[in-house]
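Sequence and fold:
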Amino acid sequence: MTHDIPVGLLATGESHVAFTKMFKMLRDCNYPLKVVVCDDRVTVKSALAKAYPRAKIQLCQNHYLENFRKALRVRTEDTYHRFFASMLNRVFRKIDITDSTITEGLRHVMARYGENDELCRSIIMEIHDRRDYLFQYLNVPNCPRDTNLVELYNSHLQGRLKSMKGFQTFSAAQRWLNAYLVRRRTKTLTDCDVKFKGLNGHSSLFLTIKDGNEWPRILGVKSPQPPRNVQ
């Protein structure tokens, strides 16, 4: 994972048309897309199937579980606290998770909470029915289980936009976004930590540019050689 942003698109909404255009842009630049981590949107699935029929979808577990928190009112009531905690610990565990532990966890929470509670039972059955989308990261190397990295980029972008008073035209906004993405892709990374610490000192574009491709002169001097085994 290189933190690179291969394409950018300014759209009026998260529509099927917008996602179709974005995936087509990725395909046109021969991007080897294997999995998309996203919120639960039908428009993403349908658009992805057109451009990358073999690509997989991993639903963001954070957003998916947040919907259950709201339905169960766990932040304001204690009725379903134990059920929700059991589901997190048994099914969405952080370590040593396998297909077998997921099955065992679902059986456990069903036997303990689902047999006599319709709401718990419906949630457990939904997780079971959508487990391929919720736990796809187990089958795709280096696939995250949430959209935290994307949310971090969005937070930075929103911070930049707050100091601006808007754009006069849609095309002006497109030009600004294009310049912003170029800057993000060519700026040296400095604040990566934990498993991404090895990316510091390099630009994301340089980490993803194909061997043998000439570095665009307009972007200035290239970064140092990238670390080995960057994924």
